[in-house]
Design goal:
It is a single chain. By secondary structure, the protein is mainly α. 70% of the residues lie in helices and 0% in strands. The protein contains 2 helices and no strands. The N and C termini lie close together (12 Å).
Length: 57
């Protein structure tokens, strides 16, 4: 399974936008943990969506 590079970038942008609405410019452990939790959830959803896509060799 391979998530397209453009989709990974779009996920990163959406996660950052959602995170920054909540945490703005905070730079502490709680804000960083929240960012990575949002990112991991979004990537898991994308992996589920692209699970049948063959990996490029």
């Amino acid at each position: 399974m391979t998530i397209p590079r453009a989709e990974k970038l779009a996920i990163t942008q959406r996660v950052h936008a959602a995170w920054s609405k909540i945490y703005d410019d905070r730079d502490d452990a709680e804000a960083n943990d929240a960012y990575f939790k949002l990112y991991e959830e979004a990537m898991a959803a994308a992996e589920e969506h692209y699970k049948d896509r063959p990996a490029s060799t």
